[in-house]
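user: can you give me the structure for this one chain? tokens are fine.
assistant: on it. calling the predictor now.
[tool input]
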Amino acid sequence: MVVVIDSRADMGQERILMKKLKKYHIGILVLSVLGVILLLWAIIATVYNFTENRYTEHVVLEPKSKSAKYKNAAAVADSRFCAEIARNVIIQGGNAVDAAIAATFCNGVVLPYATGIGGGDFIVIYLKEEKKCDFLNSRETAPSLATESMYTHDKESAQFGYQSIGIPGELHGLWTAYKKYGSKVIPWSDLVMPAAQLAKGFPMHKAMVNYFDRISKYKGRPEIEALRSLYTSKFTGEFYKVGEIVSNYPLAKLLRVIANSQDPVQLFYNGSIAEGIIKEMIANGGIITIDDLRNYETHVTETLYADLGKYRMCGPPPPSSWTITQAIPRIVETPAVLDSGTSQISVVDDDGNAVSLTSSINTA
């Protein structure tokens, strides 16, 4: 079969189609031009408004935390109980290091989900007379049996269970700071005992309640059940609510032992406490050994420095993130130097010495 196509009819239809396409293209072009004009207008208006605001309005930065000025000394901590303990140490003649140590033990009691003697510290100390800053690194370290691939097939074991535990450094760092930088006025026991007393009973706070709400879904895990047994009401069977009094008597007892020790580092890393840690590790599949504890060291170095206008900042070298954070104010044209903020513990004593201490167990 032969099919004959009328080429003249096709040509007529093609002309009609071309006219329609031409009108369509013109419409698209007009819309594009209008879009560009609107975009340029928006950019010009934004730049104009930014310029006007930049040079004619005073920008007020409202700090998230309250700021205050003090004539003699100051102490800041996550809990008012811990800030008061630090203040009392200063009043009794202690220095900033003494006060920070006492507040750190306190934080371990009222913030057990975030910090404690099972974790580690970064401690920056400003020495007024020497006009320099020293850094103590007592963060957790990996056990000698740890490997790069140990969490490859069980990622949750990096967060839960005994294989997730690093060698604790907090007590080693606090004792090192006390011996090297403490005032020698306040006995070691007076820095630890306030926390031991507080562990016998303190009011549950909102942050603690929020944490327990988050972990309530993890049922059956030994470490979670241990927390549940400590912080669960016997009457309701649920975690304590805000304002209810909670206690941690095992921690209170341990802190009393540490407070009364002539050498708490020997006790914790090579004595009876060390033996208890290793027994628990063996019983629960942990990999920390007695040699790991015995060989732990706090590293003391001078800090890094950075100048910002008339201010000079000091901060810890890697593995901390200070090398990055110190650069942030340089990016901002007018640094908000009065925008108050704090690490977990900050203390300035009446001699002008200062301590910034961050403590963590890497869970919150």
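assistant: here you go. The first helix runs from residue 7 to 56. Residues 76-201+247-326+341-360 form one domain.
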